[in-house]
Amino acid sequence: MAATTETLTAERILEATEEVLRRHGPAKATVVDVARALGVSHGSVYRHFRTKAALREAVTKRWLDRTSERLAVIAAEDRDAGARLRDWLAALFEAKRHKAGDDPELFAPYMVLVEESGPAVGEHIEDLTAQLAAIIGAGVADGTFTAPDPLTAARAVFHATGRFHDPCHAREWTAPAIDDEFTAVVDLLLRGLRP
Amino acid sequence: MAATTETLTAERILEATEEVLRRHGPAKATVVDVARALGVSHGSVYRHFRTKAALREAVTKRWLDRTSERLAVIAAEDRDAGARLRDWLAALFEAKRHKAGDDPELFAPYMVLVEESGPAVGEHIEDLTAQLAAIIGAGVADGTFTAPDPLTAARAVFHATGRFHDPCHAREWTAPAIDDEFTAVVDLLLRGLRP
Asked: For position B30, what pLDDT does the model report?
């Protein structure tokens, strides 16, 4: 079969792991299951990921990185910091809501992985907070915002909008009022950042 | 035994239900279990609570009301709205953290009840939001705050502080940075309410 003749990259292993997770749930996403799905020996998967935990960590990181990479584009835009902050928070909410609502087969197993995995989730949050701090810092520099420390302000904004991105709130994201609630929270936070 | 000679009030039934929950968890808190704990017939419990669902709803409501009643005292104080808002939010965080940390035998079963019960939880949130709106309204009246609509602002403050009262965040409440995070969020929200 084709799978065995292509070079076995970490990326191919992670794609296959996502597929296994989607089909069979987190309990079945072991190195042996993934090797079987790829039609390779489990030794060749172990050369890339030495443990099941390392494989799960990598697949979680890849999933989270897709969101941060899209948000980094907004964070880097050269325009009004207020509008950029609002759009960035809306894009974060949209990305999380999309994953929860449109891809439930993958969201449920990922929630289990997120529970298991330490560093990937923490790094993701640090990454997002740094992007927020860059937007707030730019706003402080051009007089749009006031914040004694952009990183502290970024963490506060991140925590204050948890209802709209933390997976523990996923069930609330289909409520009819949720978009108005999001707008009211973001309006208040932007007012809090005014000089 | 003493239990059978006292008048069987709804309050006594609810006390016994809490005790049964604490000892045996939510699966065991049925009308029959509670009647057995009280040494009465289950018919006499049914006269107060017609279904297991009604009993669970009432016990959840009683537990939540204890928090709202304490907070109502702060909301009604006659002093600076900014300090009152800060103290009210701190008292809410403290009450929830206390329940999660110091009474885990009751917190775990209650989380199951909170999942089950519709109206009690929604009414609790409405009650808390109304208290917040009263504080914000008083601040608007005396020029401490600006808010086009105190109830909308109250909901935004409640949602923006969810990390510090929503039970889905309970595991984060023992993190060393949590108190600084709380202060940073509340500072930002109070700045957002400035005229």
From this structure: 83
